[in-house]
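Try it yourself: sequence plus S-adenosylmethionine, in.
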Amino acid sequence: MGDFDEFTQDNNDSILKNIADDLRNCLPLETMLFSERLALQKIQQRPEPTVHVDAFLYDEDFIDSLCEEGKMSRNYCMVCGSHQTAPLGFISHSFSLMELKFIYHHVLPDLSGKLLVDVGSRLGTVLYGGYLYSSALQLYGVELNGDFCQLQEMIIKKYQFTDRIKVLHADICTQDALLQNADVVIMNNVFEYFLDEVEQARAWEYISHNVRKQGSLLVTVPSIEESLSGLQVCKPSQHFYCQHFYSTFF
Ligand SMILES: C[S@@+](CC[C@H](N)C(=O)[O-])C[C@H]1O[C@@H](n2cnc3c(N)ncnc32)[C@H](O)[C@@H]1O
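Structure, out:
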C-alpha cells in the first residue's frame, strides 16, 4: 500500500472514531433507548446475565478504562455480598470498527456503481463505513426506530455524507423495490431482539422473496441457518441460499 493510501485509511479510521465520539455524547452508556422495550426485555431473558455494550462506540480499551473508573463491570456477583463473581455476557447491536473494515476490505468485492442496503441501520455505522471504506454508489439504511433515524441524519449532515447515504424511517417489509434493486444487503442480527417470532418469520420471507437481483450478495450475522432456526418459516429457495449468500464469522 502506498503512503497516500495509508494516510487515507488512517484518516477514515479517525473520522469513524470522531463519529463514535459524537454518538456517545448523545446516548446513554447502555446505548439502548426507551423506545426499545422488546429488545431490553429479550436481553434480560437471556440465561446468563447480559448487558448491551455497543461495539462501535466502546472498543475493548474503552471498556477497560470504564471498568477502572467503576462505571462499567465485566463481572457480576453470583452470591450477593460474597467475593464470587462470574463474567457478564456482552452483546452489541452494532458492528465494531474492525468488523466494518473487515467486511468492506475483505468480505465484499469492489462496490463501484453498486447499491448497498443496510437492513436495520440503527446508529448508521454500516453506512458510514461504506462511505469511507468502499466506492459504493449509494448506501441506503432502513430503520424502524425514528429516534435512531434522527441520529443518523445528524451524523450524515455533519460529516457531509448526503451525496451517497440515504436513511429511510421504515419497516423493511415495505421496501420491495429497494431490495429488488440492491446489489448488497447487510443484515446484522436485525430481527432477533426487535421482533417477535411471527414477525421475524414474516420479515425473512419478505427478504427471501425480494433479494433477487442477479449477482446480488446478502451478508448476514449470524449465519442464515442460525437466524432461521426455531422460526416457522417456509424454507427459502435454493436461489436465496446459493446465489446471494455471504455469512461472516464474527
Ligand atoms: C442489531 S441492530 C443492527 C445495527 C447495524 N446494522 C449495524 O450492524 O451496526 C438491528 C436494528 O434493526 C432495526 N430493525 C428491526 N426490525 C426492523 C425492520 N423490520 N425494519 C427496519 N429496521 C428494523 C432495529 O430497530 C435495530 O436498530
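One thing you can check immediately is this: The two ends are 26 Å apart (CA to CA).
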